[in-house]
């Protein structure tokens, strides 16, 4: 058995480990800072959605199928292997779990997690990560395709063809008219140094992490590869929202001077545009914060939510862009203070508004999962605590979708000896008050 079960947050930069350790102590000491205006949502309106994942399940991912129905995927960890499974909501309950793939050499990590998504009427896609050389923490992306609604899956393949023993991960899928594809963080330029090259100084566009894209045919053939950005943050999640014009991609960029702000790129005429900043926080940090952005699209706006410490303390921000615009309006502060952890989620609502989710510290290793609504004019509702999280690091990146006037949330819960996916639902109207 060679699967790697990460015990905590993927944090490849030693200096960043020290930084987060200091921040953790500050957050514990200042628990509640920036959260004084938050209310506790009554637990009578938060319904347990009876997670289909069961015991020893980690790393959830939530998406919506083409009918707007939730798809929940997760990793099921056994003694000698790991399986990628998923379930789709079926009117009043989750469907029976379907196994997509299984392996003994997988990377299991709360920050870089698999997914199962519907890309077109006929095509479903899934991805997971396989270790190629644990000594340098090298791993590859594996992709599986299904043409029968996710029931059976073809032979998996790698979307990258460089063959280097480096890191490849943080995948997002996209659709472009009849074409489909994916983007990922690609460490091939770091070849020879493996995981240790995260500490390399100075870093440049010919030796750092890149953001790449490729399209795939229904048979799994690759075409139209593209380098979207030549130097990006090493291990922050990417995210994509589908809009009428194609797709919008968001990610955390990295300058040679170590500023790490949120950038976006648009899919125009089949190609990703030159990346531009969503906002200029000028967060200077010599290490990856493992705190990626989230993007969502409504009928009239595209929104991006993200975490930053550009002002020296944690902030969750939200920026809106009008339909057909290629610029974002000034960012709104969703939450701020030393207790703010980030790990944001974002979902659009039917009224052209958006709901943001994020984590905060409360005490010790415990934290809170928070929600806040922003309407189409950028007017913010009150912040609210939805649920307590026993181990904020292990909870990973909480997942959120809006379905049938309800907000659905999933994260890794359970105790130290038995991790288990937790899924809850609450009325959307509760967040908007």
Overview of this protein structure:
It is a single chain. The chain has 433 residues and is mainly β. It has one domain (4-432): Neuraminidase (6 Propeller), CATH 2.120.10. Helix content is 5%, strand content 47%. The chain has 2 helices and 32 strands. It has helices at 14-29, 428-432; strands at residues 4-5, 39-40, 47-48, 57-64, 70-77, 82-90, 93-94, 98-103, 107-108, 115-118, 124-133, 138-146, 168-176, 179-186, 210-216, 222-229, 239-243, 246-252, 262-268, 271-272, 276-277, 294-297, 301-308, 315-322, 332-336, 340-348, 354-363, 366-374, 384-389, 399-403, 406-415, 418-427. A 5-stranded mixed beta sheet has the order 2-29-28-27-26. Strands 4, 5, 6, 7 and 8 form a 5-stranded antiparallel beta sheet that branches. A hairpin with a 3-residue loop joins strand 22 (294-297) and strand 23. The longest helix has 16 residues, at 14-29. It is globular. The protein starts with a strand and ends with a helix. Residues 7-36 have low confidence and may be disordered.
Q: Give a count of the beta strands, DSSP E runs of length 2 or more.
A: 32
At the fold tier of CATH, the topology name is Neuraminidase
- Continuous helix count: 2
Q: How far do the termini sit from each other?
A: 51 Å
Q: Tell me the helix content.
A: under 10%
Low-confidence spans: 7-36
Task: Summarize the structure in short.
The protein is mainly β. Helix content is 5%, strand content 47%. The longest helix has 16 residues.
Helix-strand blueprint:
Blueprint: E1 4-5, H1 14-29, E2 39-40, E3 47-48, E4 57-64, E5 70-77, E6 82-90, E7 93-94, E8 98-103, E9 107-108, E10 115-118, E11 124-133, E12 138-146, E13 168-176, E14 179-186, E15 210-216, E16 222-229, E17 239-243, E18 246-252, E19 262-268, E20 271-272, E21 276-277, E22 294-297, E23 301-308, E24 315-322, E25 332-336, E26 340-348, E27 354-363, E28 366-374, E29 384-389, E30 399-403, E31 406-415, E32 418-427, H2 428-432
């Amino acid at each position: 058995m060679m699967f790697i079960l990460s015990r905590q947050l993927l944090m490849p930069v030693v200096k960043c480990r020290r930084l987060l350790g200091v921040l953790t102590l500050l957050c514990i000491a200042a628990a509640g800072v920036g959260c004084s205006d938050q209310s506790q949502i009554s637990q009578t309106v938060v319904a347990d959605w009876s997670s289909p994942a069961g015991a020893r399940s980690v790393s959830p991912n939530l998406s919506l199928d083409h009918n707007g129905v939730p798809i929940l995927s997760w990793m099921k960890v056994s003694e000698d292997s790991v399986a990628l499974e998923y379930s789709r909501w079926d009117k009043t309950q989750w469907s029976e779990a379907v196994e997509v793939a299984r392996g003994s050499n997988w990377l299991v990590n709360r920050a870089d997690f698999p997914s199962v998504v519907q890309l077109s009427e006929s095509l479903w896609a899934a991805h997971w990560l396989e270790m190629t050389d644990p000594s340098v923490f090298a791993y590859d992306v594996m992709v599986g395709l299904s043409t029968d609604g996710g029931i059976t899956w073809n032979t998996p393949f790698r979307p990258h063809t460089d063959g280097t023993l480096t890191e490849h991960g943080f995948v997002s899928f996209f659709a472009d008219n009849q074409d489909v594809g994916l983007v990922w963080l690609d460490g091939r330029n770091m070849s020879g140094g493996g995981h240790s090259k995260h500490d390399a100084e100075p870093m440049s566009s010919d030796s750092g992490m890149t953001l790449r894209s490729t399209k795939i045919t229904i048979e799994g053939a690759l075409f139209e590869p593209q380098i979207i950005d030549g130097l990006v943050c090493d291990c922050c999640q990417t995210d994509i929202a589908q809009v009428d014009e194609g797709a919008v991609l968001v990610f955390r960029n990295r300058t040679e001077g170590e500023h790490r702000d949120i950038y976006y790129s648009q899919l125009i005429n089949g190609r990703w545009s030159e990346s531009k900043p969503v906002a200029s926080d000028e967060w200077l940090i010599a290490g990856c914060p493992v705190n990626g952005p989230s993007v969502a699209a409504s009928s009239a706006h595209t929104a991006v939510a993200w975490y930053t410490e550009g002002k020296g303390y944690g902030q969750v921000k939200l920026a809106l862009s009008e339909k057909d615009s290629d610029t974002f309006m000034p960012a709104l502060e969703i939450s701020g203070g030393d207790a703010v952890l980030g790990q944001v989620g974002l979902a659009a609502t039917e009224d052209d508004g958006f709901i943001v989710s994020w984590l905060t510290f409360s005490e010790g290793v415990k934290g809170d999962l928070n929600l806040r609504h922003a309407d189409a004019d950028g007017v913010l509702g009150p912040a609210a605590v939805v649920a307590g999280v026993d181990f904020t690091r292990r909870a990973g990146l909480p997942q959120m979708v809006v379905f049938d006037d309800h907000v659905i949330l999933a994260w890794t819960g359970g105790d130290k000896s038995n991790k288990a996916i937790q899924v809850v639902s609450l009325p959307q109207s509760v967040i908007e008050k």
